[in-house]
Amino acid sequence: MKRQIFVVLILLISVASYSQFNKNIAIEVRYPLPIGDNFINKGFDKGYLGIIDLGLDYNVIEKNGLGLGIVFNTSYLRFSETDVNLLILSPKIKLEYEIELNKLSIIPQIGVGFSSWQYRVYDIIYTDELGNYLYTSDFKQIENGLTLKGATKFVINTDKRVKWYFNIAYEFTRLEKSEYESANTKYNRNIQMIYPGVGMIWNFSKS
To answer: Based on the number of CB atoms within 10 Å of its own CB, is 92 exposed (0-12), middle (13-18) or buried (19 or more)?
Structure first.
């Protein structure tokens, strides 16, 4: 997995080195919605509850409607059955194509990148066999994975500095092999998520 991270970073640096400066950046807010047969969606029959996802989207190269760039998302979910908080950090390389339809643009997008899944439980209270308090501590576990993304933006075209859009995305993550044999199943490693959301494209070259 460290090798995959290194390759992604090298590709991003190489693309940026041979590109012209783009004046648009997209900021979006999405809702993480687990789907499929996996522990994120079906753990204890309830699964994780999506809270929020925040994203930045930037084209390093734009030409004839094609855009090549980077996207970075941070998702937050919670598993109320055991008070587990899940933070997902996911940088990706993405390719998109803009289809202009008068006042509306449709932008399909595909991407591939790395995901870091960070599970954490705060203030775990430990007691002895008699129930007497011993100490309080936090628990943290990190799993990494490879993520594939497919998405479509529906952008309202204006001549203003800011354009608004609706976005729907699907992401598939293959988590790395666990050191525990019982966890090496599709249920524990193949994670699917849908992300409906809204965003804005800001042109910071306009006055």
So the answer is: buried
Residue 87 burial (10 A CB sphere; 0-12, 13-18, 19+): middle
pLDDT in tens, 88-109: 999 999 999 999 988 899 999 9
Q: Does this model's pTM top 0.85?
A: no
CA-to-CA distance for 161 and 200, rounded, in angstroms?
10
In 3D space, the residue among 108, 92, 95 whose CA is nearest the CA of residue 173 turns out to be 92
Instruction: Say how far apart CA 148 and CA 174 lie, in whole Å.
Output: 9
Question: Would you say 142 and 118 are in contact if contact means Cβ atoms under 8 Å apart?
Answer: yes
CA 170 to chain centroid, in Å, comes to 10
Calculated CA dihedral for residues 128, 133, 135, 141, nearest 10 degrees: 70
Element (H, E) at 92: strand 84-97
Report CA torsion sign: 176, 73, 39, 197. negative
